[in-house]
């Protein structure tokens, strides 16, 4: 494993008639490992230089979450009349197999863990048009190329959407209501 054989007795001998498989091979740690296979016949003939090799890749470490997750279009905790929220994030980290993609979900819960299903490989996304209301959140987690997900997620929000203009002021009055020699007036109304 990881070092080409230098003699016919190197490695681990597995005895079996007409062997064509090695099951449950375990490597010494995360990373890419070269496995060498050479054969010995029933008469005991063996030549370690007549070998084949294959690389096995093992990544048991979950990726890291992105370092940044924000919205360039909306402020959290503030009302907006734009029902679609743009979000962006930095690439997650995974030094072994690399990042395969992300699960991003929108809802009105502050701590959702998205399902283990890639929804985007991009570093940006835009929500569908959100209905009027408050308390919308985006949740993001990453998956590596070995299929391992981050155990936690990043959460961004709350976002609040208001699409209705306010009604006209009711019962608008001015004081003083008649002609005045002083250039100072007070406007009053009810909502």
User: How helical, in percent, are the residues?
Assistant: under 10%
The N- and C-terminal alpha carbons lie at a distance of 78 Å
- Please compute the radius of gyration using only Cα atoms: 32 Å
Overall mean confidence score, pLDDT:
94
Q: Work out the strand percent.
A: 35-45%
Give the assembly state of these chains.
Answer: single chain
Question: Helix and strand succession?
Answer: EEEEEEEEEEE
Global geometry: rod-shaped
Detail the poorly predicted runs.
none
Biggest sheet: strand arrangement: 4-9-8-6
Give the total of beta strands. Answer: 11
Question: Helix- and strand-based class?
Answer: mainly beta
Question: Helix count, per DSSP?
Answer: 0
The largest sheet, given as strand count, sense and whether it forms a barrel, is: 4 strands, mixed
Any key phrases for this structure?
single chain, 191 residues, mainly beta, four-stranded mixed beta sheet, three-stranded antiparallel beta sheet, 11 strands, 39% strand, rod-shaped
Topology:
Elements: E1 31-40, E2 46-58, E3 69-70, E4 79-80, E5 86-89, E6 99-107, E7 124-126, E8 133-144, E9 154-161, E10 170-175, E11 186-190
Parallel strand pairs: 4-9
Antiparallel strand pairs: 1-2, 3-5, 5-7, 6-8, 8-9, 10-11
């Amino acid at each position: 494993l990881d070092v080409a054989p230098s003699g016919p007795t190197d490695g681990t001998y597995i005895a079996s008639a007409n062997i064509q498989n090695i099951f449950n091979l375990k490597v010494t740690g995360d990373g890419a490992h070269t496995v060498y296979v050479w054969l010995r016949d029933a008469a005991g003939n063996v030549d370690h230089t007549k070998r084949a090799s294959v690389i096995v890749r093992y990544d048991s470490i979950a990726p890291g979450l992105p370092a940044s997750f924000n919205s360039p279009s909306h402020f959290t905790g503030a009302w907006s009349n734009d029902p679609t929220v743009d979000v962006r994030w930095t690439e997650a980290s995974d030094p072994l197999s690399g990042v395969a993609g992300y699960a991003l979900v929108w809802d009105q819960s502050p701590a959702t863990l998205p399902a283990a299903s890639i929804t985007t490989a991009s570093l940006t996304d835009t929500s569908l048009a959100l209905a009027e209301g408050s308390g919308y959140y985006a949740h993001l987690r990453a998956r590596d190329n070995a299929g391992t997900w981050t155990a936690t997620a990043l959460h961004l929000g709350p976002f609040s959407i208001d699409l209705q203009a306010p009604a006209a002021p009711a019962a608008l009055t001015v004081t003083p209501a008649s002609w005045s020699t002083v250039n100072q007036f007070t406007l009053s109304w009810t909502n």
